[in-house]
Amino acid sequence: MGTRGQSGNVILLLLLGLFVLGVVGGGIFLLSPSKVGMENRTAEEARAAYDEAVASLDRALKDPRNVQDSLERNHSSFDCLFRSDGDCRGKGGAFLLYDVSQMKRPLSNLARDSGVDSLGRACKGFPSAACPLQVETVWEPVCSGPRCENTQSIKVKAKVTLAPILENQVPLEWTRESTFTPQIALSGAASCERGGGVWANTECLTATQAAERQIASSPKGKPDAITGPAPDAREERPADPQMPPQYECPNQIVVQGQYYPVQWLTADRGQVSVPAMSCPAAGLTDVFVFQCAAKNPATFPNEGQWIQVEAVMSPPCDEQGNPVGGAGRY
């Protein structure tokens, strides 16, 4: 009887121990979210971020002021609109769209692998579960002539993409296309040359006036035999003094929606170096060269603006982050 009673006690203790372990294990399971539950929650948060991005982008594109503000902040992206020839053939591309009603970060992304996570925070690695959302805004010129000299309108294509997070889930995509006619504030030089004139530092001359001034300021001061004998020296017109430009450009330039300090090359030319858009992980840079030009003196006295004249873009990278090919010069 004693031996049998001890065996019963052991069995009872074992059963009690298994019961306690079951209760503790079940509690831990109930308190700890499963992998499937976490993925479902992430998917729900990502869908909410997607809906919010669609609503924000749709609202921003309904107000032309947002495109106007974005054009001024992305001057290098819209550079051809400000040049003297206005030639935007084959131009356009990605730009950062801003909402003037709020001072937050831009609504869209520039880099191919940039996006937003399920909580609406900026991330890298799109498309992935950790970076499932991307917002793109791309522009292209609407030309009124064969060479786009008088481009007045731009077409903006917007897209919001949500990459799959769960298995058997398909990507979501929302697109919209709108046309805008922004106000292009040309510099005095660009406005003059676009109208067929010749910009002479601080004033706009006709082609005839420019030719006469060039002859008058020539060191020879003598016309050739076809135009007749040289006039008396007392009748020669003195050369007009060449006044230095009465305008200044800022010490910072906005590129890709961010301010960068100017690296001065000459008195009226500078450059900025920014992280490469095509391969940011490799630590490469893109270099943009700008020329300082006067704005319309009647509207912006003594104020200059930077006009992009050259760009050296870093090559793209492979899957391992190694540059492929050489740099592109534009």
**Range of helix content:** 25-40%
Count the beta strands. 15
Proportion of residues in β-strands: 25-35%
pLDDT averaged residue by residue: 76
SSE class: alpha+beta
Write out the strand line-up for the largest beta sheet, numbering strands in chain order: 11-12-13-14-15
Low-confidence stretches: 28-32, 221-245
Termini separation (Å)? 99 Å
Give the count of helical stretches: 6
Number of domains: 3
Q: Tell me the major beta sheet.
A: 5 strands, antiparallel
Q: What gyration radius follows from the Cα positions, in whole Å? A: 33 Å
What gross morphology would you assign?
elongated
Name the helix and strand elements from N-terminus to C-terminus, one letter apiece. Answer: HHHHEEEEEEHEEHEEEEEEE
Task: Outline the fold blueprint.
Elements: H1 2-31, H2 35-61, H3 64-73, H4 79-82, E1 93-94, E2 114-116, E3 122-124, E4 133-142, E5 153-162, E6 172-180, H5 188-194, E7 198-200, E8 203-205, H6 207-216, E9 252-255, E10 258-261, E11 263-266, E12 269-275, E13 285-294, E14 304-313, E15 328-329
Antiparallel strand pairs: 1-4, 2-3, 4-5, 5-6, 7-8, 9-10, 11-12, 12-13, 13-14, 14-15
Provide a short characterization of the protein structure.
The chain is α+β, with helices and mostly antiparallel strands. It has helices spanning 2-31, 35-61, 64-73, 79-82, 188-194, 207-216; strands at 93-94, 114-116, 122-124, 133-142, 153-162, 172-180, 198-200, 203-205, 252-255, 258-261, 263-266, 269-275, 285-294, 304-313, 328-329.
